[in-house]
Amino acid sequence: MQNGLNKHLWWQEGVIYQIYPRSYQDSNGDGIGDLKGILGRLDYLQWLGVTAVWLSPIYPSPMADFGYDISDYQGIHPLFGTPEDFKTLLEAVHQRGMKLILDLVPNHTSDQHPWFLESRSSRDNPKRDWYLWHDPQADGSPPNNWLSVFGGSGWEWDETTGQYYYHAFLKEQPDLNWRNPAVRRAMFDVMRFWLNLGVDGFRVDVMWHMIKDQQLRDNPVNPDYQPHMATYEQLLPVYSTDQPEVHDLVLEMRQVLDAYDERLMIGEIYLPIHQLVAYYGIDGKGAHLPFNFQLLLLPWEARQIAAAIDQYEGVLPTGGWPNWVLGNHDQPRITSRVGREQARVAALLLLTLRGTPTVYYGDEIGMRDVPIPFDEVQDPQGLNMPDKNLSRDPARTPMQWDNSPNAGFTTGKPWLRLADQFRRENVQAQRDDPYSMLTLHRRLIGLRQREPSLMVGNYVPVFADTQLIAYLRQAEGHPRFLIILNLSHRPAYFKAKDPSLRGVVEVATFPEREGQTVGDSIQLGGDEGLVIRLD
Ligand code: GLC
């Protein structure tokens, strides 16, 4: 698409949809979603209008962290299917004009990966230096104070070889030593393996963790720590994450992709905005899309979010393409954070902001976090810190397709329980309902894909009342859109600076409003959001 002087790439124009494969669609009755299941749902994804599908890990794994502990980077876990199933899926995605993005987990492997088995076998094994092995301190304690994200120390003692190894996550997920060129070569080969097969890009897991301080300096204490927080938050990970050298590494990964046509590299990065945008790299030679998680992390409050959007727009480097995320498999679902009515406003925000949106599976039907009884918790983060309500299971429950047993997800026993209300809240029930969350998503995606102003146009903030967020989107030579969102439950009033403002409501969270002509003074109900096509 041409917009002024710029040509846009597929991932700039498109909408990404994240699938958590365990929970999308089971095809063989084992209660766990699989690739054939996803294949059977491609018609749905095409109907929804998304451009690209990102799959959370599908590789062989002991599943200590549900696939984020990989024991073979070039295979497919039998739970999910076979390499042939993968090829069939990839081809079918491409036939529909869609793209497929894989999760790449380069920071750590499984402790069952042959590389680690070798590495831990002896101190002089050639792969010893592929991981982060260090001597204990004089008193036998770990090399420094670094903590594991999932609770406890980040160091695990290895009796056989008398050293500690570092794991930012579970002890079953030892961190690779990315300062070692052989590790780089091996992981770049993994990337090429999938790129050669035709995969359209990667979402790179915990990109900001990949390099650690060479001197292993202690992390400082976090003065803002509160007891309800994960124990990891007791320290500020100043020396264990986001080291300057990581940017050289990201550049090298990008060079691997750049040997191919239009492949995409997304970075999973939880960092304050100024540190985040550094991951675009010098001259834009880093990650194409460092994931922007502000909408996930900020309080749902109009002024704070409006300010964050403007700040983000302001600090993006030249040529850096924005992106927005409302949900993923690690965070509470948007519906559970802000409520069902506000979740519609949130969808409107996600799908009308400038930059590539990522939709988490199930959010398009307003799926909620499902309360999982203690004895059914599966997520290691939940199991390791049971009193902190940190389990990620609630946001990972099976997709709700219809009102048949198990919501059409499986004929077996689902690996995680379904929402009690799945018989009412599912794709089938919402598909033809003009007022449903699904219809809202489909229409917003459709509008975004049809209207260059929404797809790739400029973002211009508009002054609004404290309850509201308002902005304009415009691509040269195309109709302008004004978006006004009421983030509160009470009525709110928008007054435009320009008294000649006129437009027609194109999409609204309450569809009754659509088709209405509006002027410079616009009243919004609580939880109301409007997309207005300006004259
Ligand atoms: C990322 C993943 C998360 C996983 C962690 C360790 O944050 O999104 O699910 O547990 O990395 O791999």
UniProtKB/TrEMBL annotation:
SMART domains: Aamy (SM00642). Gene3D superfamilies: Glycosidases (3.20.20.80), Golgi alpha-mannosidase II (2.60.40.1180), Oligo-1,6-glucosidase, Domain 2 (3.90.400.10). Keywords: Glycosidase, Hydrolase. SUPFAM superfamilies: (Trans)glycosidases (SSF51445). Residues 18-396 form the Glycosyl hydrolase family 13 catalytic domain. One of its GO terms (molecular function) is alpha-amylase activity. GO terms for biological process: oligosaccharide catabolic process. Coiled coil: none annotated. Belongs to the glycosyl hydrolase 13 family. PANTHER family: ALPHA-AMYLASE FAMILY MEMBER, NEUTRAL AND BASIC AMINO ACID TRANSPORT PROTEIN RBAT. This is Alpha-amylase. It comes from Larkinella terrae. The lineage of its organism: Bacteria, Pseudomonadati, Bacteroidota, Cytophagia, Cytophagales.
